[in-house]
Design a protein that fits this description.
The protein has 195 residues and is mostly helical. The chain is built from nine helices and no strands.
């Protein structure tokens, strides 16, 4: 391949996402990506500004893919059915696309993503599912953080073989989702201060 033949930011991002799934997101470098295309590292800089730029692009693509899966799973569902579908789609993506999933967990400069369609869609779907539980701010933010921490923690442990007990991992996952549903239905209300 000639040094710039066919290289575009989108093509590089997709290749970096594939590479992340193969070798781990933390191991994706511009040098590794250049090697994949048979070009010198410097030729990538006309398409991406830096490694951070590339990683941000991968995170945004992966976040879009993930929420697309979740949206299909939760369509037409509410309450516990929506929560279980959301959780299962989240977990499936994390386990099937480990490098891409890792990219979704990085901190991204909010000014870069404020107007990103995937971010808006993620908020709409997640908050919409949680509003069915009767939650409003600031409880919505707290509930999102609980779900993300639970789902991410579970997926991170599962992907590294961190669950060693003889009980089936799927059964524990199902119980965790049941417990989250109960927590959301019985969300603790903040005490109002009438001073």
């Amino acid at each position: 391949m000639s040094p710039r033949a066919g290289l575009t930011p989108d093509r590089l991002t997709e290749a970096a996402a594939d590479l992340a799934d193969e070798i781990g997101f933390e191991n994706v470098t511009l040098a590794a990506l250049a090697k994949r295309f048979g070009v010198k590292d410097a030729s990538l800089y006309s398409h991406v500004r830096s490694l951070q730029d590339l990683r941000t692009r991968v995170a945004l693509v992966a976040g879009g893919e993930m929420i697309d899966r979740i949206a299909v799973a939760v369509a037409g569902r509410a309450g516990k059915d929506a929560l279980a579908a959301f959780a299962d789609a989240y977990r499936a993506y994390a386990l099937e696309r480990p490098g891409r999933y890792a990219a979704t967990q990085i901190r991204i400069d909010q000014s870069l993503i404020a107007d990103t369609p995937a971010l808006r869609r993620t908020a709409e779907i997640t908050y919409g599912m949680l509003r069915a539980y009767g939650l409003a701010e600031p409880d919505l933010t707290d509930a999102v953080r609980l779900l993300r921490a639970t789902f991410h923690g579970y997926c991170a442990l599962e992907s590294t073989g961190g669950f060693g007990a003889p009980r089936a991992v799927q059964e524990s996952w199902d119980k965790a989702v049941d417990a989250l549903h109960i927590a959301l239905e019985n969300w603790p209300q903040e005490e109002k201060n009438d001073d």
